[in-house]
Structure formats: C-alpha cells, structure tokens
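ok so i was messing around last nite and threw this chain in just to see what happens. nothing serious, just curious
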Amino acid sequence: MRIFILSDHPLFGQGIESLIGQQTGLQTVGRASDIQQAMPQIQELRPDIVILDSSNWPSGPAPVALPILAQQLGTKVIALNLEDNSMSIYRGERRIVKEVKDLLEAIEDE
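result:
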C-alpha cells in the first residue's frame, strides 16, 4: 500500500512515516503540509491512502478529503484527529442506486 501523509505538524508526519516504515507492505510515497501543495503530488503519485491530520481544520476533515476524492483516483482518505483520538475514513467510490438492495449493499460493505 502506497501512502501519502498530509499534515502541517512536521512531528506528526515524521511519526506516521516512521510507523509506516516499520510495517511490511506499507510505503510512504510523499508528504505535504497543505492541500494546495499536496494535490499535484497526489495526482502524480496516485497513493492508495492519504493520511491527514484533521486537528487543525475547524470545519473538520471533509473539506480536505473531498478534493482528494473528487480526483477519482481510488484513493482512501484516513483523517486522524489528535485532539480526541478519533479517525474518519473516506472512500472515493461512487455507485448507482437503483434499488433498496443497492443501498443496503453499500451500508454492509464497510
């Protein structure tokens, strides 16, 4: 799995990169401190996962995750909040819903 780290906290980014480096099958492919700097790199590198520190965004991680997901690269975004130790996961997936079973499948696919 190829991972990109997005955080304006250098120690957070270095810590996540160090943890990832210790895991078999995980590789950090890039790091950036803001979304404007990150987007061209994400488009070029096409990571499987973007890990972001959502602690500094008062409106939450969604405004940062949505532009990444809008690129439709199949990238998953994992937002870590250091203030309350929570995690939000966003997937860049779009499905057509024609029947109730389509919605139920999407709910169960977690």
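not much to say yet. The chain has four helices and five strands.
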